[in-house]
Each structure stands twice: as C-alpha cells, then as structure tokens.
C-alpha cells in the first residue's frame, strides 16, 4: 500500500537515512512505463532517493494527508537528464509565456500536487515548473516532454475505479485493454477458462466461475462505487449480470445489445426479482453513440462512456464548467 511506503520514507528522512524506492510502489518508473524513453528508466529511482533530504518531509506528509482525506492528488517527479538544458530552456511561440527562466535547477525533485492546484515541494520552483507540475493532475501528465533537459512523471494518491466485465466476449477483451490503458482497474468474469485467458486479458484480474454458467456470480460482490459492464458471450447471461450489479448498487451498469434482445432481458430481470427502477439504471445499449460496430470500435464507445462517468463522478458541475470553458467548448 502506497500509504505505508510514504510513511516509511518520512521515517527514513527523519533519521537521515536514504530511503529505498521501488518501481513496484512508483509504477511510473516501471520498465513498462519507461520503455522506449531514452531519458529515464527504473534505475532513476535511485537518483531520486539519493536527492531526498529532510526538506522533502512536508511533501510526503502532505501526500499522506491527501490519502487519508481521499483527495484527488498526485505525487510527482521532476526527472532531469540534462541539468544545463533544464535550466536554460525557453518558451516557444505557441505556448503561454512563463518568463525567461527555465526550470529552477538541474536536480530531480519530488512534489505534491492536487486537483485544486496546491503544490508542496522541498525546493523553490519556477513558473514554468509550476505549469508542468499542475499538468501532472491531468492523469498523470500532459506536457511532460515539452521542454528540453527534463521530463515529468507522477503516481496517483487515490484508488482506481474498478470496472467489472461480466463475460469474456471479444468486445470485453478489447474493453479490458483500453480501460486498463486509461487507468481503470479491470476484472473479467466468465465460466469458460478458454475465454478467460491471459492471452485475451493480459492486464485484467481474471475470475473463472464454476458450474458452466453464471450462477456462482452470486458468491461475489462488487462495491457501490464500482462500474459493471454486462458483455456476456451471446448475451446468454445478461439478465444474471444486470440483476447482480443492481443488487450490489453498482455506480454504473451498462449492457450490450439491441432493443429486441433487451426487451427479453427486461422480462427476465424483473422475473428474477429486480425492480423496474433497477432496470432503468442499466445503460442500454452501453457506450457513447457514434456508429461503432466492431468489437474494437465498441470498446472505444464503451470506455469513452466510462471515462465520462468517472469525470462526472469526480468533478463538480462547477469544476467541469471551468474545464470546458478553458478548452473553449
């Protein structure tokens, strides 16, 4: 758990000890995350660790408080591969001007930044640093490669949204890959191990139900904050999936299918004891509307909807309005 890791770092710094940082705890430095990036690899965590001093304790303590308060916040890293270049880089003719000073210095830095744009760091930083620190809140960073000499990375201090894929269909396989890529934690459930394979779902947690059907689904539970996508193969167990998700009050429930099929699922859902209000909570058909037909296209529509649901869940109407206005939409 990252909270325990951060608390341990604080303890080490309090006694003047260099902490040990692992890519398992800070996955933005993992081999997968840094693959193809000639400027950083997992070993850079040793450079970060060696740079930490007592002055960095408030940064980690603020991160701990953010975790305890459920704040939408990140722990960020300034990664320097050319110290002179980091300090001397300049604005271009397109972006907003941030002054004549590049980064504050040519050393790595660990900082805290939350969605309210509060920044805590152990050393001074420039307006251009501030710009890039704030962009860490855009999951995990947007303009991290904009200026020469340095790059940026971050880890979230809040939990991923858990997405359940009920059914290991071809569409579910595409959804799992894309949902993982945009930061969801994915679990796929089916009764046939040949479909719930590592090859089809390499990044997802895989659950194989006993009994050759979805009856054993009742032995599990999702949390009220989870999202459920009902994507069973051939739609054969869609009613069971909808009833299960409604029973556990999932935040979002979506189901694949056409109007005719969904009418029959409606009858079966009510026959299983669900209320009409439960059925009305099911988004059908699942996904944003833009003409998707193939499994890969449907996955784009579905995950786009999941991103939108997550956005609306995490941000107030006011915050979303400010964001849309800043984009000129």
N→C terminal distance: 39 Å
Number of domains: 2
Low-confidence stretches: none
Largest sheet: 6 strands, parallel
Describe the structure.
With 329 residues, this protein is α/β, with parallel strands linked by helices. It has two domains: 2-156, no CATH class; 162-314, Rossmann fold (3-Layer(aba) Sandwich), CATH 3.40.50.720. The protein contains twelve helices and ten strands. The strands form two sheets. A six-stranded parallel beta sheet has the order 7-6-5-8-9-10, with helices on both faces. A four-stranded antiparallel beta sheet has the order 3-2-1-4, sandwiched between helices. β8, α8 and β9 form a beta-alpha-beta unit. It is elongated, with a radius of gyration of 23 Å.
Task: Write a brief structural summary.
With 329 residues, the chain is an alpha/beta fold.
Topology:
Elements: H1 2-14, H2 31-34, H3 44-51, H4 57-69, E1 73-80, H5 83-88, E2 109-114, E3 119-121, H6 127-135, E4 150-156, E5 162-166, H7 170-181, E6 185-190, E7 205-208, E8 227-230, H8 238-247, E9 252-255, H9 259-271, H10 276-280, E10 282-283, H11 295-314, H12 317-326
Parallel strand pairs: 5-6, 5-8, 6-7, 8-9, 9-10
Antiparallel strand pairs: 1-2, 1-4, 2-3
Entry keywords:
single chain; 329 residues; alpha/beta; 2 domains; six-stranded parallel beta sheet; four-stranded antiparallel beta sheet; elongated
């Amino acid at each position: 758990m990252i909270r325990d890791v951060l608390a341990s770092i604080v303890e080490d710094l309090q006694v003047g000890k260099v902490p040990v940082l692992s890519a398992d705890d800070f996955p933005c430095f993992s081999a997968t995350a840094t693959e193809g990036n000639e400027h950083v690899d997992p070993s850079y965590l040793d450079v970060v660790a060696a740079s930490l001093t007592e002055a960095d304790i408030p940064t980690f303590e603020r991160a701990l408080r953010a975790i305890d308060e459920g704040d939408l916040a990140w722990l960020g890293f300034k990664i320097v591969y050319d110290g002179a270049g980091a300090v001397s880089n300049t604005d271009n003719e397109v972006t907003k001007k941030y002054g004549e000073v590049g980064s504050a210095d040519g050393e790595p830095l660990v900082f805290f930044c939350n969605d309210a744009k509060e920044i805590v760091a152990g050393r001074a930083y420039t307006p251009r640093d501030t710009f890039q620190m704030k962009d860490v809140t855009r999951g995990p960073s947007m303009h991290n490669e904009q200026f020469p000499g340095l790059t940026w990375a971050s880890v979230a201090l809040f939990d991923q949204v858990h997405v359940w894929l009920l059914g290991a269909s071809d569409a579910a396989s595409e959804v799992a890959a894309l949902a993982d890529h945009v930061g969801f934690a994915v679990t796929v459930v089916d009764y046939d191990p040949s479909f719930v394979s590592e090859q089809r779902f390499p990044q997802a947690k895989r659950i194989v139900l006993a009994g050759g059907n979805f009856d054993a689904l009742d032995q599990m539970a999702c949390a009220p904050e989870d999202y459920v996508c009902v994507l069973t193969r051939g739609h054969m167990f869609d009613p069971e999936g909808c009833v299960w998700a409604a029973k556990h009050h999932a935040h979002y429930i979506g189901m694949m299918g056409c109007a005719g099929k969904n009418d029959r699922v409606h009858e079966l859902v009510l026959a299983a004891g669900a209320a009409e209000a439960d059925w009305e909570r099911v988004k059908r058909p699942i996904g944003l509307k833009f003409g998707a037909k193939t499994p890969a296209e449907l996955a784009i529509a579905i995950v786009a909807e999941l991103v939108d649901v997550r956005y609306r869940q995490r941000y107030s109407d006011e915050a979303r309005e400010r964001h849309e206005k800043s984009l000129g939409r």
